[in-house]
Amino acid sequence: MSQEKLLLIPGPSPVVPRILDVLAKPTVSHVGPDMVRDLKEACENLKKIVFCENGEPFIISGAGTLSMEMAILNTAGPGDRVLVLSQGYFGQRMADICRAFGLEHDVLECEWGKSVTPRELEQRLRAKNYNVVVCTHVDTATGACAPVEEYSQVLDKTGALFIVDGVCATGGVPERMDAWGIDVVLTAAQKCLGTPPGLSILVLSEQAMEKRRSLAAVPAYYSDLLRWLPIMHDPSKYFSTPGVNEVRAFAEATRIILEEGVEERFERHDLHAEAIRAGLAALSFGFFTDPDYLAATLSVVRYPDGVDDKAFRAGLYENGVVVAGGLAQTLGQVFRMGHMGNLSSAQVKFAIGAVEKTLQGLGCPFKPGSGSEAVNKVLKA
Amino acid sequence: MSQEKLLLIPGPSPVVPRILDVLAKPTVSHVGPDMVRDLKEACENLKKIVFCENGEPFIISGAGTLSMEMAILNTAGPGDRVLVLSQGYFGQRMADICRAFGLEHDVLECEWGKSVTPRELEQRLRAKNYNVVVCTHVDTATGACAPVEEYSQVLDKTGALFIVDGVCATGGVPERMDAWGIDVVLTAAQKCLGTPPGLSILVLSEQAMEKRRSLAAVPAYYSDLLRWLPIMHDPSKYFSTPGVNEVRAFAEATRIILEEGVEERFERHDLHAEAIRAGLAALSFGFFTDPDYLAATLSVVRYPDGVDDKAFRAGLYENGVVVAGGLAQTLGQVFRMGHMGNLSSAQVKFAIGAVEKTLQGLGCPFKPGSGSEAVNKVLKA
After folding, report:
1. A280/A272 Cα distance (integer angstroms)
2. Measured between CA atoms, how close is A47 to chain B, in angstroms?
């Protein structure tokens, strides 16, 4: 095993020992009392995290992409029109999924690093009717955070179901399902929720469940949420063996979130994002994402003149921090740093310290300590 | 947390500490060097476990049911005819999956506790052509093990692809893909492979991959194995974040299997099955499954006269062993005991000792020590 590094890619996020300890508990029966209690509690807690009173939560072995598929297959059928608000990589993926299943769909795109504006959405909806509108809340490739609350205000006047892909947002950025009229939040375990990857996670509103029931059939079996519903209500029932250890670890993750407080968690994500960006800016890094759309959960960072992507990331790795390179059109031009999940202030400081060390190792000119100083100023404010 | 019990349900099987320790390692990058090495090694080892030289292995976050779906969606399309050899619960499930996706299929059934005979298969194939034939190797509900090698001899004369659902068999009962001409083995992590649940696992032959490539499109996105193929060849590439901790734990599980020796592992499963059945028979239990079809991986056990199902299983639980009740038509009439994965002889002895204690607690007449004596006789032979 390589020496342990601080994992600051845009997911998986670092997993705290308390969650790893639960993950490593002896595997219990998938329909036994320990699992029943933990899956039920995880479902209840999940609803609190997305502010949903009466919806239906689903926690199923899979990944974020499977959550996306589950969300759209269970809310759109033949004759439905889907509008995908795409701000980058994962909007395109949602369009690909619609295509794979033959769902009629349009894509409303924007420049990478920004989001589709509520005004653009409004104009499109005046021109054409849609049954389902889906947006990526935070795009992992571009670092842009979409104005979900404002979208929901626009959609309020239509009968369209509203799906929010919260893979890089849920638990780190507000998603107030009931208040905003969101019908589906889909996400994965390994981002702001702080659990190892391996779960597809969704919450559907009552309207979304009604829509599922109105679909005669869906081109899905494992992804058919109606097959999972009885298990989420009573985990002692059997459909397909859930990932026992993962689910129990996720239950612990939701406990940690509620102990911290959901609002406090959002504030911490804001604070850490501000601190990290202040530190990086002090070291002459820039940001790819439009300042109006910066996400609290990750930063897409432009290099100072003369700093090479590969050399920088290799150096940073040696100094104990793993970040990701650019995706698609930003490849080689940026690095992406996640700052989400159960990150501590000490880890934020460590990360910027490691960036300074790396610049030093590469012989780049900078004022030693200036990054850390900027971080501390934000954290102490 | 409840006190730890010996988990002898027909999956999940008990997970040894060595695998739990790997599961609990800090989460690493899904495209980083540790994960690349482990996923590659797991893929190579998996091929050895099913005796496949040139096929394509897939290890994907999910469950056994998703493996079933992946197997059939990637080998059968419009115009294909599927024959499902059903010996119980999971054959019916495969038929349900075919129905959900509109695949033309027939079901060849048999009495619960037996398997469809090779002769019945031969007769059916004389009457009608099929492009894909799928069987459950060991049915978890009935405890019957199908004559897969003999099926393959019958199928050898046809051009049909042969899918084996090895969820309760792979790694505990021989599945010699190349020698027998099996085109797909599908399975899950938590049975004979001894890992916690959370993975869909498949190996496809070259013929099966050719068939997938010949299908213009499949009604799948996450389940489309062509999307996963580049990742299985080079895990530093990205499609959808794999379950890092689960995959690394599974890699460790495959190492344990190869260290034991695959043939030796099959022999151990045979021996433990024989020992457990000798012990239970000495205590006046009977078996639901036809003696010609007894699986080495689990037993479906009939009670002696006057022993109540619920009282017995509750008592056994108190004595440290978890077993499962009957499924569907056997509910209340049998218990199902798994004996698969990384079970030790000491655990086999403990299990029969716990059965004796339970009978004693219920006031059932039996010769004390007779069960354990029968077990020891087999294990020492």
Report:
1. 12
2. 23
Report CA-CA distances (Å) from A381 to A363, A368, A373, B173.
Answer: 32, 22, 12, 64
Neighbours of A90 (CB within 10 A): 25
> How does pLDDT run across B78-136, given as a tens digit for each residue?
999 999 999 989 999 999 999 999 999 999 999 999 999 999 999 999 999 999 999 99
pLDDT for the residue numbered A1: 39
Q: Considering chain A, what is the average pLDDT of its residues? A: 97
Do B63 and A64 make contact, defined as CB atoms within 8 angstroms? Answer: no
3-state secondary structure A46-73: HHHHCCCCCCEEEEEECCHHHHHHHHHH
Q: What are the start-end ranges of the H helices in chain A?
A: 17-23, 33-49, 64-73, 89-100, 118-127, 148-155, 177-180, 206-214, 225-233, 244-260, 262-282, 309-318, 345-361, 370-380
- What domains sit in chain A, N to C, each tagged with a CATH number? 6-11+261-380 (3.90.1150.10), 17-260 (3.40.640.10)
Model confidence pLDDT, tens digit, residues A70-105:
999 999 999 999 999 999 899 999 999 999 999 999
Q: Residue A134: its pLDDT value, please?
A: 98
8 A C-beta contact, residue A247 and residue A38 = yes
- Alpha-carbon span B329 to B333, nearest angstrom: 9
Q: Which candidate from B12, B62, B324 shows the least CB-CB separation from A62?
A: B62
The answer on pLDDT for A2 being more than 60 is: no
Q: Tell me the pLDDT tens digit for each residue of A208-241.
A: 999 999 998 899 999 999 999 999 999 999 999 9
- Sequence-distant (6+) residues with CB within 8 A of B105 are B81, B82, B83, B84, B95, B98, B99
| CB–CB contact A23 B69 (8 Å) | no
ipTM of the complex: 0.97
Is B197 close to A243, i.e. CB distance below 8 A? yes
pLDDT-derived band at A329 (thresholds 50, 70, 90) equals confident
Chain pair A-B, CB pairs under 8 angstroms: 184
- For the stretch B147-182, pLDDT in tens is 999 999 999 989 999 999 999 999 999 999 999 999
> Is the distance from CB of A160 to CB of A133 less than 8 angstroms?
yes
- Contact yes or no for A62 and B100 at CB 8 A: no
3-state secondary structure at position B208: helix
Q: How far is CA B289 from CA B112, B377, B378, in A?
A: 8, 23, 21
Mean pLDDT, residues B66-75: 98
Helix, strand, coil % over all residues of chain B, rounded to 5: 45, 15, 40
In this complex, the residue of B1, B29, B221 whose CB is nearest that of residue A97 is: B221
Question: Do the bridges between strand A6-7 and strand A321-322 make them parallel or antiparallel, or are there none, so unpaired?
Answer: parallel
**Interface touch B66/A197, C-beta < 8 Å:** no
Q: What secondary structure does DSSP assign to A219-243, as a single string? A: S-STT-HHHHHHHHH-TTS-SS---
Which residue of A lies nearest to B101 if distances are taken between CA atoms?
A219
Q: Which residues of A touch B253 (CB under 8 A)?
A: none
What does the pLDDT read at residue B328?
A: 84
Facing A2 at nearest CB: one of B34, B66, B222: B34
Q: Do A221 and B65 touch (CB under 8 A)?
A: yes
Contact criterion met (CB < 8 Å) for B20 and A26: yes
Closest CB from A61, A63, A223 relative to B240: A63
**Strand (E) or helix (H) holding B262:** helix B262-282
A183-195 per-position pLDDT tens digit: 999 999 999 999 9
Q: Which residues make beta-bridge pairs with B107?
A: B84
CB neighbour list of residue B155: distance below 8 Å, 6 or more residues apart:
B121, B125, B133, B162, B181
